[in-house]
Each structure stands twice: as structure tokens, then as C-alpha cells.
Amino acid sequence: MKVLIPSALRSYAERGEVDADGDTLAALLIDLDRSYPGIRFRMIDEQGQIRPHIRFFFDGTQLRELSQPLRAGGELIIVQALSGG
Predict the structure, then answer these.
(1) What number does CATH give the domain 2-80?
(2) pLDDT values of the chain reduced to their tens digit, one per residue, 85 residues
(3) Are 32 and 20 in contact (CB under 8 A)?
(4) How far apart, in Å, are the Cα atoms of 61 and each of 32, 77, 84?
(5) Which of 69, 1, 81 lies closest to 42 in space, CA to CA?
(6) What are phi and psi of 39, to 5 degrees?
């Protein structure tokens, strides 16, 4: 499926749109990390949780759990919030 990468993570993928496979969000992120080593750690913490500044949207619906199923042919958008003061 198509995965849209935010500009802050493009140093890993070197482009804004890539392809990855997986029947759950967790599986897709593992597949993405195989092609672009280190990208998963920027989104998932050491406890296996989605980092607070990361949001995932699959075909317009926000995914809140790594176990959420994905269907082939969809589009995953990764959004990385900016913070600071």
C-alpha cells in the first residue's frame, strides 16, 4: 500500500511516498523498517507504543493501536506533530 512519509522522516526514506505491506499497522511498520532501517524507532518507542507526536491515518481514519487491521490497496498517512516553544 502507499505510505506518505512526513518531511521530518524523509531522511530515512529519501522521498515522500513509499510502498509497504502489512495486514496490521505493526506489520506494516516492520516492513517499512526493513526497507528504511531506523524509521520505525522514530515512530514507536522502546515499550512498543506509538510515540505521542506521531499520528497514523489509514484512508482518512486515525489509527490508535498497532494491532489495527489494514486492507490492501489503502493509503497510510504518517503525521508528525511539531512541538517547541
Answers:
(1) 3.10.20.30
(2) 999 999 999 999 999 999 999 999 999 999 999 999 999 999 999 999 999 999 999 999 999 999 999 998 999 999 988 765 5
(3) yes
(4) 20, 10, 27
(5) 81
(6) -65, -35
List the grid coordinates of 62: 486515525
Radius of gyration over alpha carbons of the chain, in Å?
Answer: 12
pLDDT of residue 85: 55
Write a three-state SS string for 17-84.
EEECCCCEHHHHHHHHHHHCCCCHHHCECCCCCECCCEEEEECCEEECCCCCECCCCCEEEEEECCCC
Domains in the chain: boundaries = 2-80
- Whether 78 and 9 have beta carbons less than 8 Å apart is answered as yes
Q: Give the whole-angstrom CA distance, residue 41 versus residue 47.
A: 11
